[in-house]
Specification:
The complex is a heterodimer. By secondary structure, chain A is of the alpha+beta class. Chain A contains 16 helices and 19 strands. Chain B has 11 helices and no strands. Classes of the chains: A alpha+beta, B mainly alpha.
């Protein structure tokens, strides 16, 4: 009888022993170099040995930092690379909570997170307008792609736009897996259905309510289409029977911002830590890491670093205008580059229009001066975005003082060639070739 | 099928290479669930005894509540504990959310009714004459309780096993209040969910194997204590 009694006692004691362990046990020493002050919650307290090994750095007053982010940044592995560097540099201990953008913003509103990394610009703007955020910075982007079974039953491969692709899926009643979790990806998907004026029918519309990787898996098993960010898809590709069937619509940009939560609303928010994290994310070193991340494994970067760029012109990275051929230096300019040059306004009449009007743009002579055409050049060719070409004699161009490249609607560049035939007035010019 | 073999092989590899990350996750699981079970025992043993032996008007009502609590869904507990521990919640200033302590709190709430309920039923299944006889022999209240516990040691150990089993295997509450933070609050079950969602099926299977092994070892120990001849 006694023995059993002792056994019982031993069991209780054993649990007690195990129980005490988490408090005294040191958390991973290598990951958190700076020891938080002992006044913090005992769980994050470390053995003093670690502190002596750590580089001499002023430990932050409040080392605990809660980062609410999207599942895609976690699932793509980017934060596994960035967070240890940040922790090493600053001594903060980051608690990364990976949720959908909707929940991340909610956490920010309630002060349950210090800093957010999210990708639903429209909701973010509302969040900022309502005073929940303090600072919001453009960090990076990648793009969404439409994936589906290789057979492509709805024939979206030939779609001209994202809206058309969605319309085709709806018309074919092909299964479509939706995240349905209020994430950034889900919001993007809803916007596209709305633009296509379609209310998805539950007969073919599968709402998974799960993260991107899970939804991809479900889509793969169900021969369904789904909208995904490129990074997660590339990461999961080998587990999936899905192919990229539609990509490249400007609406498919997936833009990530970092937002610090406004500490005025919730005094417990770690404002210094949030600021430090934001500064870290947009620092040139971090942006350089983001730029290269994934290239070794997938042959292409998973994200494009964007800090300091114009959010509305992220696609402008492919040059809007190239000047080449018989020139001293080949020039490629983004739309912003062109827009930054000296603007001139001329009043001219298109040969096929009834009246003259004002055209504003950059003088052709100024653009050519950048490239310095060869002295023996005889011909200038405008190449339009649809492949249309029109040739003009070089002598005429040089003689034309008010020929210019107009900055038109939808970021188009149009040739304005007063006194020349209408063919010379090329629209949507993307290249100027000198011969 | 291949993935299962790959998973089992990887489990063996992880176990014998003493992969530090897996070791940490495993240890944290054991510590958190062990502590939660121990606290549940401290609450459940006296409370269960009181409910089994005591005579007071609301006894049956409380017992019915406890029995319902044995079926508490972990996600509901997780949600409730989260609401209290979030910074916007009433206990936000304690800064416990997303810490192992938060998981212990949630798991204790899950395990305590199990231990309490099973303790009560273990003591009630004893022959009521035993208690009368002990009292007749002049034993004090403490001595009576002690003797009854000894008599009911088999079902009492089963209660501990059930309590431990209910928390080592739960994922909903750990995920919500712990946040599945790498190196801080990631336990075996949340790690399995994460690896599955990432498509790392072999690693998920490996972690599952480790979880099962851990549960088996703990129960093997408790069973050997329970079944020891005296």
């Amino acid at each position: 009888m006694k023995k059993t009694l002792y056994s019982l006692l031993i069991v209780v004691f054993l649990f007690g022993l195990v129980a005490c362990a988490p408090v005294t046990q040191a958390p991973p020493a290598t990951e958190e170099p700076a020891a938080p002050p002992a006044t913090e919650a005992p769980v994050v307290t470390e053995e003093p040995v670690v502190a002596t090994e750590a580089p001499e750095k002023p430990a932050p007053e409040n080392p605990e930092l809660i980062l609410a982010t999207t599942t895609s940044t976690r699932d793509s592995g980017l934060l596994d690379v960035l967070l240890p560097i940040f922790e090493e540099q600053t001594g903060y201990v980051v608690k990364m909570i990976a949720v959908g953008t909707g929940e991340a913003l909610k956490m920010g509103e309630e002060g349950n997170a210090d800093v957010l990394m999210v990708h639903a610009p429209a909701s973010e703007v509302t969040f900022m307008e309502n005073g929940f955020g303090k600072q919001r910075e453009l960090m990076m982007h990648n793009d969404f792609v439409l994936v589906g079974p290789a057979e492509d039953p709805a024939g979206i491969k030939t779609a001209a736009s994202a809206v058309e692709a969605f319309t085709k899926i709806a018309e074919a009643k092909a299964p479509f897996a939706s995240r349905a979790d209020d994430s950034g990806t889900h919001k993007m998907e809803l916007k596209l259905w709305e633009n296509a004026a379609i209310t998805p029918d539950p007969a073919w519309y599968l709402e998974t309510g799960q993260g991107m990787a899970d939804t991809l898996k479900i889509a793969s098993e169900k021969y369904a289409y789904t909208l995904t960010d490129r990074a997660t898809y590339l990461f999961q590709m080998e587990n999936l029977d899905l192919e990229i069937l539609y990509e490249g619509d400007p609406a498919f940009l997936n833009i990530y911002h970092v937002i610090t939560v406004n500490p005025d609303k919730w005094p417990l928010v770690n404002a210094e830590g949030a600021q430090a994290f934001l500064d870290f994310c947009i620092s040139p070193e971090t942006q350089a890491i983001i730029k290269d991340y994934g290239t070794d494994k997938f042959g292409q970067p998973l994200f494009i670093a964007d800090y300091g760029k114009d959010e509305n012109n992220l696609l402008g990275e492919k040059p809007a205008l190239k000047i080449g051929g018989n020139v001293e230096t080949e020039v490629s300019l983004s739309y912003d580059d062109v827009a930054a040059m000296t603007m001139t306004t001329v009043n001219a009449k298109h040969p096929k229009k009834d009246a003259a009007r004002d055209y504003t743009g950059v003088l052709l002579s100024e653009l050519l001066a950048l490239a310095k055409p060869g002295a023996d050049a005889t011909k200038l060719t405008f190449v339009a975005s649809d492949g249309f070409t029109s040739e003009v004699a070089m002598a005429d161009v040089l003689a034309c003082a008010d020929c210019l490249v107009e900055l038109g609607d939808e970021q188009s560049l149009n040739a304005v060639m007063p006194g020349m035939e209408s063919k010379a007035w090329a629209k949507y010019v993307v290249e100027i070739v000198i011969e | 099928m291949e993935v299962i073999w790959k998973g089992i092989l990887q489990a063996l590899e992880l176990l014998f290479s003493f992969d530090t990350e897996v070791l940490k996750v495993t240890l944290l699981s054991l510590q958190v669930s062990g502590l939660a079970t121990a606290i549940s025992l401290l609450i459940g043993l006296p409370l269960g005894t009181l409910l089994a032996l005591g005579k007071f008007p609301s006894r049956k009502f409380i017992l019915s509540l406890i029995n319902t609590g044995m079926a508490l869904p972990p996600v509901v507990v997780g949600l409730a504990v989260s609401i209290f521990l979030w910074r916007s919640g009433p206990l936000g200033s304690l800064r416990l959310i997303y810490t192992p302590i938060a998981i212990v709190i949630a798991q204790t709430i899950i395990a305590a009714p199990v231990v309490t309920g099973l303790t009560a039923s273990a003591l009630q299944s004893l022959d009521p004459r035993l208690k009368l006889q002990l009292q007749g022999l002049g034993a004090s209240q403490a001595q009576v309780t002690w003797s009854l516990w000894k008599e009911a040691r088999l079902p009492l150990l089963a209660a501990i096993m059930a309590g431990f089993g209910s928390v080592i295997s739960e994922v909903g509450a750990s995920m919500m209040v712990g946040g599945n933070i790498r190196n801080q609050t990631r336990v075996l079950t949340t790690a399995i969910v994460l690896e599955t969602s990432k498509g790392e099926f072999a690693l998920a299977i490996a972690l599952s194997a480790i979880l099962l092994l851990l549960a088996y070892l703990v129960n093997l120990f408790l069973t050997s204590v329970q079944q020891r001849r005296h």
